[in-house]
Amino acid sequence: MSPLTHALLVDGPDDLPAAYRHHRLHSPTDKVTITWCGGREHFVATGETTEHNGHRLAVYRWSYRTRIAE
Fold first, then answer.
1. pLDDT for the residue numbered 16
2. Spatial CA neighbour of 32 closest among 4, 60, 2, 66
3. How far apart are CA 55 and CA 58, in angstroms?
4. Number of other CB atoms surrounding residue 33 within 10 Å
5. Distance from C-alpha of 4 to C-alpha of 47, rounded to nearest angstrom
6. Closest residue by Cα to residue 20 from 64, 49, 47, 60
7. What are the pLDDT tens digits along the chain (70 aa)?
8. Whole-angstrom distance, CA of residue 47 vs CA of residue 26
9. Measured between alpha carbons, how far is 43 from 49 in angstroms, rounded to an integer?
10. Predicted pLDDT of residue 2
11. CA 28 – CA 54 distance, rounded (Å)
12. Contact between residue 41 and residue 12 where contact means Cβ atoms under 8 Å apart
């Protein structure tokens, strides 16, 4: 089976746009980090997958937030 190339980011900030929640994976990874509203949102792989618009997506669940140092 080929590695999944897209992820669905679940939970985390309510105002995180759908464009961020459907995330392209450049390589298989256990964590995904995105920059959002002055911080970094960290998501971890759940081992689950979901179907969306005919594509299989790896599911990553929000874990924690860090602030960007000034």
1. 93
2. 60
3. 10
4. 12
5. 11
6. 60
7. 456 788 999 999 999 998 899 988 888 789 999 999 999 999 999 999 999 888 889 999 999 999 988 6
8. 17
9. 14
10. 53
11. 20
12. yes
